[in-house]
């Protein structure tokens, strides 16, 4: 860690701090870096932050001298040197699970892990907490559990389940960023999947609204709507990953995307497909988007978007050992050719954002049986390094990383007027990131609750050095800093 230092420059009366030292009082700050990462590229310069934690301006190194000469306020200068200065990551797909399954994950541990990973905002999924966030009363329960427990800012998805159409507008007014539903069995009984009649009611209720409706897009391959198992899977070894993979073929995702395309054509609702695994999904959504745009849609991306996840871009089915169910997720990690095709979509910007889909569980639910083990990959803390490891090897820039991990998720969640980029007027959610450092992911580095990971002992490139939420330091040199001071991004007046 860089040594702390103080320097008083008498002629401007400005206090200059070394990396990471956080004063008790609120004051203006200037964050310096030789690699300030913006949407358009990188500059040698700085980010000026006011006493309220809002970005006032982005400056090149040449213009900073002019700033000093004309600046009449106390100014704390934080110099990251060669570390890249980036907008904080917005992870729009995190299962916190509190209350009800807090032994799986909780707000303290999830947001501490987020801070350690350069995440400044997480968006909590409506399951697997008990109760799920499917009504205004259930949202109150969730918010009560999260209050004064979060180290980074937290927003909330609402849930789509059969029969809760009357709750949707209430949840919108209370500030949920959108809604998430399943087209197949969710795996938890309190969050049933939606079907044809339910979908018509949901789309009718939300038609014309500004928020996204997100779907776990798999359809069953048998007549049993809650079954995804192929006919011959029971005759195969459940300890082998190939058995599980064959039970959830790409056609399940393709059929689901095809179904959603029909609703996209009928309704004016932003439809988002979460955790795309099968590469064949993207062309279907693009066709639906083009139909929307040709018919005059002014929505972002025509109101048709999709995400993929770090595990689909980092891992492939060929490398998954028998019994290692920390690799299990739904949809499944597919073969190397599918992975390479997803990377082509990244290159062509045909995918809109990347999220973790952090879906943890206790170790006891990760038995060696792929067919019965809980499906979910834990990775909320390491997404920035995971993506950079793969992206750097392919010649991508840090601006590309910021596009997919920060601005894209912020736009999906309707937070782009506050989060997701280095722009004047936005929250000073900042990350100092060393793109040239590397580290081995070991259990002692993990901040989330259950220290399970398919990336264990993997060497990752790029290391989060410091994380700031609205200009306040929350992570520094391997340690989460201070007390929970994140905000819950809801409309409390409407909620209560």
Description:
- The chain has 496 residues and is an alpha/beta fold.
- The protein is built from 13 helices and 20 strands.
- The strands form three sheets. Strands 1, 2, 3, 4, 5, 6, 7, 17, 18, 19 and 20 form an eleven-stranded mixed β-sheet that branches.
- The protein is globular.
- Cα gyration radius (Å): 22 Å
Helix tally? 13
Taken as a percent bin, the fraction of beta residues is: 15-25%
- Summarize the biggest pleated sheet: 11 strands, mixed
Structure classification: alpha/beta
Low-confidence stretches: 1-25
Quaternary structure annotation: single chain
Q: Residue share in helices?
A: 25-40%
Quick overview of this protein structure:
This protein is an alpha/beta fold.
List keywords for this structure.
alpha/beta; six-stranded parallel beta sheet; 23% strand; globular
Topology:
Blueprint: E1 6-9, E2 14-17, E3 28-38, E4 41-49, E5 55-60, H1 61-70, E6 75-79, E7 84-87, E8 89-94, H2 107-116, E9 119-124, H3 136-146, E10 153-156, E11 158-159, H4 165-174, E12 178-182, H5 196-206, E13 212-216, H6 241-247, H7 250-266, E14 270-273, H8 281-294, E15 304-309, H9 310-314, H10 336-348, E16 353-355, H11 383-393, H12 398-412, E17 430-440, E18 459-469, E19 472-476, E20 479-480, H13 492-495
Parallel strand pairs: 2-6, 3-6, 3-7, 8-9, 9-10, 11-12, 12-13, 13-14, 14-15, 15-16
Antiparallel strand pairs: 1-2, 3-4, 4-5, 7-17, 17-18, 18-19, 19-20
Helix pairs in contact: 4-5, 7-8, 11-12
């Amino acid at each position: 860690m860089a040594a702390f230092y103080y320097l008083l420059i008498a002629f401007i009366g400005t206090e200059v701090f070394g990396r990471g030292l956080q004063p008790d009082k609120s004051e203006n700050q200037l964050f310096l870096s030789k690699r300030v990462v913006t949407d358009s590229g990188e500059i040698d310069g700085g980010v000026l932050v006011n006493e309220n934690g809002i970005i006032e301006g982005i400056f090149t190194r040449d213009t900073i001298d002019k700033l000093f000469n004309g600046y009449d306020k106390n100014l704390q200068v934080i110099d990251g040197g060669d570390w890249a200065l980036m907008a904080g990551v917005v992870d729009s797909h995190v299962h916190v699970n509190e209350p009800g399954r807090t032994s799986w994950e909780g707000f303290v541990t999830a947001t501490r892990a987020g801070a350690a990973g350069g995440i400044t905002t997480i968006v909590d999924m409506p399951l697997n907490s008990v109760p799920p966030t499917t009504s205004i009363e259930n949202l109150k329960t969730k918010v009560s559990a999260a209050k004064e427990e979060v180290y980074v800012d937290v927003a909330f998805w609402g849930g789509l389940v059969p029969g809760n159409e009357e709750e949707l507008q209430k949840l919108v007014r209370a500030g949920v960023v959108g809604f998430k539903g399943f087209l197949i069995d969710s795996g938890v009984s309190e969050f049933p999947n939606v079907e044809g009649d339910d979908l018509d009611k949901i789309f009718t209720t939300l038609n014309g609204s500004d928020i996204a409706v997100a779907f776990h897009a798999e359809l069953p391959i048998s007549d049993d709507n809650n079954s995804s198992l192929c006919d011959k899977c029971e005759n195969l070894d459940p300890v082998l990953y190939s058995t599980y993979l064959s039970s959830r073929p790409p056609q399940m995702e393709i059929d689901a995307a095809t179904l959603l395309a029909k609703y996209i054509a009928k309704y004016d609702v932003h439809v988002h497909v979460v955790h795309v695994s099968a590469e064949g999904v993207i062309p279907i959504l693009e066709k639906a988007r083009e139909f929307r745009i040709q018919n005059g849609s002014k929505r972002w991306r025509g109101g048709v978007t999709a995400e993929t996840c770090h595990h689909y871009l980092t891992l492939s089915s060929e490398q998954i050992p028998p019994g290692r169910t920390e690799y299990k997720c739904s949809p499944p990690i597919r073969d190397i050719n599918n992975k390479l095709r997803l990377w082509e979509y990244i290159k062509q910007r045909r995918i809109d954002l990347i999220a973790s889909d952090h879906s943890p569980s206790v170790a006891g639910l990760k038995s060696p049986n792929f067919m019965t083990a809980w499906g979910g990959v834990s990775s909320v803390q390491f997404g920035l390094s995971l993506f950079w490891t793969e992206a750097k090897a392919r010649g991508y820039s840090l601006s590309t990383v910021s596009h997919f991990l920060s601005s894209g998720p912020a736009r999906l969640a309707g937070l782009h007027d506050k989060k997701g980029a280095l722009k004047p007027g936005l929250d000073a959610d900042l990350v100092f990131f060393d793109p040239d450092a590397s580290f081995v992911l070991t259990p002692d580095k993990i901040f989330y609750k259950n220290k399970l990971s398919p990336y264990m002992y993997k060497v990752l490139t790029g290391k989060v050095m410091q994380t700031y939420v609205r200009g306040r330091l929350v992570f520094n040199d391997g340690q989460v800093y201070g007390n929970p001071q994140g905000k819950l991004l809801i409309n409390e007046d409407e909620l209560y």
